From TrEMBL:
This is Inner membrane ABC transporter permease protein ycjO. Residues 61-271 form the ABC transmembrane type-1 domain. One of its GO terms (biological process) is transmembrane transport. It is found in: Cell membrane. CDD domains: TM_PBP2. Its main location: membrane. Gene3D superfamilies: MetI-like (1.10.3720.10). The chain crosses the membrane at residues 7-32, 65-86, 98-119, 146-171, 192-215, 253-274. It comes from Bordetella pseudohinzii. It is a multi-pass membrane protein.
């Protein structure tokens, strides 16, 4: 028995070692860079001290939190609604499923550029409709009052199928006999949803929301394609701030400090996911 166990470990070990190298080496290098290890001046926490004083970092952190909370909330509402609809039996359901998944197949940057054109002040489709209705064009992407909301709505549409697919899988795993028993007892649809669907779906909801929050925390392409983080840094999140400092200002130490903070935020989000997964396995 022990030989079989060691044989299993031996087969798995190369993949685990490779995964540790791929994930661990960049993480260690980022931490070392954030501490300026290897620089002539020696190790320093100056990068982290600078974060506290940097108004742009604070604004980007706040944007990240607002963006993630709003987008994940909209993803849940849209995803649950569409999943409930697609879980019903009707003709052409497969076609509606394909259409529902289409937004998620769109690459981030391409989606950002498309929405940038749609919300363009002069020639965008949204403002053309507003003008036809007798309204005044709105600077959706160039005004701080509207830009973050516009990006949130665009990403809510593009990314909701991810949550929808997870919830749809959860809905299809609910035993049908529970619904049949409720139907025999004459239980109303709302009570069926509240007392059968929702309790059975709760673990999948937790997993979907946590994974979606992790994904949205590190979103880059959609925001970059639509606004580039502007106007000013009204739509700039932490991922864009890392990009700007590393590739535009060539300040690798400060960019690494921001990246470490972002990684810590993602780890905080990953803990409940791991706990939920382990609880389900038990």
């Amino acid at each position: 028995m022990e030989k079989r166990q060691w044989a299993g470990y031996a087969f798995v070990a190369p993949g685990v070692i490779l995964l540790i190298l791929i994930l661990g080496f960049p993480a260690v290098m980022a931490v070392l860079q954030s501490l300026s290890i290897g620089e002539a001046a020696g190790p320093s926490l100056a990068g982290y001290a600078r974060l506290v004083q940097d108004a742009e970092f604070r604004a980007s952190l706040l944007n990240t939190v607002i963006f993630v909370v709003c987008v994940v909330g909209l993803h849940f509402l849209l995803g649950l609604g569409v999943a409930l609809l697609l879980n019903q039996q009707f003709r052409g359901r497969w076609l509606f499923r394909v259409i529902a998944i289409l937004p998620w197949t769109m690459p981030d940057v391409i989606g950002g550029l498309i929405f940038r054109f749609i919300f363009d002040t002069l020639s965008g489709g949204v403002n053309l409709v507003i003008q036809l209705a007798g309204g005044t064009p709105v600077d959706w992407l160039g005004h701080p009052q509207w830009s973050l909301m516009t990006v949130i709505l665009a990403e809510a549409w593009r990314g909701y199928p991810y949550v929808m697919l997870i919830l749809l899988a959860g809905l299809q795993a609910i035993p049908r006999d529970q619904y049949e028993a409720a139907e025999i007892d004459g239980v109303g649809k709302w009570k069926v949803f509240a007392h059968i669907t929702l309790p059975n779906l709760r673990p999948m909801i937790a997993i979907a929301l946590i994974l979606d929050a992790i994904w949205e925390c590190r979103l880059f392409g959609m925001i970059y394609g639509m606004t580039g983080g502007g106007p000013g840094y009204a739509t700039q999140n932490l991922t864009l701030l890392v990009y700007k400092n590393y590739f535009q200002f060539f300040d690798s130490a400060y960019a690494s400090s921001i990246a470490v903070v972002l990684a810590a935020l993602l780890l905080v989000l990953a803990v409940p996911y791991v706990r939920t997964t382990l609880k389900e396995q038990r």
